Amino acid sequence: MNNPFIGELIGTMLLIIFGDGVVANVVLNKTKGQNSGWIVIATGWAMAVAVGVYASGPISGAHINPAVTIGLAVIGKFQWANVVPYIIAQFIGAFLGGVIVWLAYRQHFEATENADLKLAVFCTGPAIRDYPSNLVTEIIGTFTLVFGVLSMTYFAGKDNPVWLGGTWGSWVVAVLVWAIGMSLGGPTGYAINPARDLGPRIAHAVLPIPGKRDSDFAYGWVPVVGPVIGGIIGALLYVATFGSAPPPH
Description:
The protein is built from eleven helices and no strands. The chain is an all-alpha fold and about 250 residues long.
């Protein structure tokens, strides 16, 4: 079944299962990976991107991120008519991924008293809460993501886009996400994806998690607005840099 909606849903769901899953493994009590640190989280998220891209690339192009979808539409590389269906699929997939992680770690949520850590499994939060600065960080992170992916696609050639191309294409994107996490993840947790943050945040709000806190929707707009702005900037700068020159073969 070659259905782009299903492709985006499944790809984003897998992204969250592995991404939120690694956070749960590191921060929740009595897991095998408890306290294994930031490098494990950044690596887990990079691998999560690779899996999501492999799963959805041949079907939908593996956007798995509304900021990517909107950025591509702004520069004419994706039809605006398909933007809303793609974003809906991404948010549904992200929500379902958050629910699945909760099911996998349900006993560990019960064994964890810190409500902030329970929330951190599902969504990002700032290390220092300052909304303008947090917004700028998310803009920068997503700019590097979208510009980086488009640049990789250009050098892969028009007949071999990086997310659909050879065996190593998805891993190149994973390395980019790994680099973003290691270099720019400290201030906000590098959401760089509105669906990745808001979908699981809503899951946190509705799931019967014992001892949970509020879902911090007061901050939740930052990892939605920042990535959209950053994605548009990244896409526009790609066009300004590479223009209409044909990709190499």
